[in-house]
Design goal:
This protein has 249 residues and is of the alpha/beta class. The protein is built from eleven helices and nine strands. The protein has helices spanning 12-21, 43-59, 70-83, 95-101, 113-117, 119-128, 142-147, 154-169, 186-193, 203-216, 237-247; strands at 2-6, 26-31, 64-67, 88-89, 106-111, 133-138, 174-177, 198-200, 227-232. Strands 4-3-1-2-9 form a five-stranded parallel beta sheet, with helices on both faces. A four-stranded parallel beta sheet has the order 6-5-7-8, with helices on both faces. α9 (186-193) links the parallel β7 (174-177) and β8 (198-200). α1 (12-21) packs across α10, α2 (43-59) crosses α3 (70-83) and α8 (154-169) crosses α9 (186-193). The structure holds D-glutamic acid. D-glutamic acid is lined by residues 6-8, 10, 36-39, 69-71, 112, 115, 143, 179-181.
Length: 249
């Protein structure tokens, strides 16, 4: 069984990609929505939540854990790897593919305020910023939209436009979605960004990495009881709706 967690429903965008390549596996998804958003919390708080959630997932039988949250990956993955005898797969901000494919030499990264402060993100950025201009912006209000299930329409468009504008004004032709909530707004982001801009969701790469590590570790890729068990620390409504949406996508 694969354990997955996020501050809320965002990690379901990663589970959606995982289900495409591991359709017969069993998953336990923990949405820490009572503590969402992580993006405004301290690194210590996020590490503490990572520990508590990891314990819960292991107690429930997870054999590998996906941190389907860029903020929690940046804040906690090295601590969790040092403390727990289980493999962790984290989210990588897709700065590399964006930087290598950009024609304008300018890429935009949308992520949470906490992610931009993590050494993991700063190290990745440092590798590419000599040759590429990296423009950053917090997707302000994006997490709240997704948690409320507002994935399209005029309100979503105006919220998205506000955070995308500074990136587009600087000439970014690649936009990296550095928070797992944001891909649920993909249609709106693409519409606002326009046809000349490629929007990159790192979830498929994370799903491929999970499969690779499961094979390396000799973990079973199927379960006699395939499916998704949902655990939430707060209200279940939003996560249940999005889970239904990704399973029938
Ligand atoms: N989904 C998360 C991420 O990938 C966190 C969003 C939040 O809780 O602020 O960063």
């Amino acid at each position: 069984m694969v354990g997955i967690f996020d501050s809320g429903s965002g990690g379901l965008s990663v589970l959606r990609e995982i289900l495409k390549i591991l359709p017969r596996e069993r998953f336990i998804y923990y949405a820490d929505n009572a503590n969402c958003p992580y993006g405004e919390k301290t690194l210590d708080f996020i590490i503490e939540r990572g520990r508590a959630i990891t314990k819960t997932l292991l107690d429930r039988g997870a054999g590998i854990i996906v941190i389907a949250c860029n903020t929690a990956t940046g804040a906690a993955i090295s601590t969790l790897r040092a403390e727990f005898p289980v493999k962790f797969i984290g989210m990588e901000p897709a700065v590399k593919p964006a930087a290598l494919s950009s024609r304008t030499g300018v890429i935009g990264v949308l992520a949470t305020a906490a992610t931009f402060k993590t050494s993991k993100y700063l190290t990745t950025k440092g590798r590419y910023e000599d040759n590429t201009r990296i423009v950053e912006h917090v997707g302000e209000g994006f997490v709240e939209l997704v948690e409320r299930g507002i994935l399209k329409g005029a309100v979503a468009e105006s919220v998205v436009r506000r955070s995308l504008k500074p990136l587009l004004d600087e000439g970014a032709d690649r936009i990296v979605l550095g928070c797992t909530h944001y891909p649920f707004l993909m249609d709106v982001i693409r519409k606002v960004a326009g046809p000349g801009v490629e929007v990159i969701d790192p979830a498929p790469a994370a799903a491929r990495r999970l499969l690779e590590v499961m094979k390396e570790e000799g973990l079973p890729l199927e379960d006699p009881h395939p499916g998704v068990e949902l655990v939430t620390s707060g209200d279940r409504g939003s996560a249940e709706r999005l889970l239904k949406m990704i399973r029938y996508a």
